[in-house]
Amino acid sequence: MIRLLLFTGFLLFTFCQSNPSQSAFRDEQQRFPRVRTAYERTWSGWRLRLAAHGIDPDQPELFIRAFKVGRSLEVWARTRTTATPFVLVRTFYLAGTSGTLGPKHREGDRQVPEGFYQVDRFNPSSLYHLSLGLNYPNASDLRQSDSQHPGGDIFIHGSNATVGCLPITDAGIEELYVLAVEARAAGQDTIGMHIFPFPLTPENLAARRHSAHAAFWQNLRAGYLFFEQNHQLPQLATDARGAYTVR
């Protein structure tokens, strides 16, 4: 399966590793030919794009948001040393999909998760070119999904194939991977990622009010709405039932 194959040749480059300096993370990543090539192809363009949005290219802070309907993956950024709102700097098309609308509940259900996640792994040796791993299952998933086999190994990666991941083509993952490395090297320990079925507007929710997932989507709405209104990330918690709350 793709989720398992993504671990082939995988080295544990995580946010938790103890590098002597932040820039050492970038240096270590650039030991890999694919990452060096990705830098050569994309970093000069990223610097121009970030500067055009008023973002210091040497201090980027990222947030990623994806929607299943419309198959989009948005990259938002700001200068890390500021508290200014995030701005949308790039949108990628999801080159492949699997499953249906609704959360992931168990291993093998082919579902792309829905909820509030973090990028917690960098894989420069992915079978799907490059990949960024998500912390699925999170605390909410562990309470609401199959207790023994909730699944895992959810990545943003290259190619256009998927059984529950988010592929954005090889060219797309080169761009995103490089920017994520730069954010990590600049000191961003956590890159947030929110995954939604569709924009959680009253109209969209009303149109799907009879879905078995309607209550779950209503629970996601507070976090969605906070970002929509403020372009700042909400402070989230999970209650004993696995429901999200915005602090």
TrEMBL record:
The keyword Transport does not apply. Residues 62-198 form the L,D-TPase catalytic domain. One of its GO terms (biological process) is cell wall organization. The active site is at H157 (proton donor/acceptor), C165 (nucleophile). Keywords: Cell shape, Cell wall biogenesis/degradation, Peptidoglycan synthesis, Transferase. PROSITE patterns: LD_TPASE. It comes from the Bacteria. InterPro entries: LD_TPept_cat_dom, Transpep_catalytic_dom. Pathway: Cell wall biogenesis; peptidoglycan biosynthesis. GO terms for molecular function: carboxypeptidase activity; transferase activity. Belongs to the YkuD family. This is L,D-TPase catalytic domain-containing protein. It comes from Hymenobacter aerilatus.
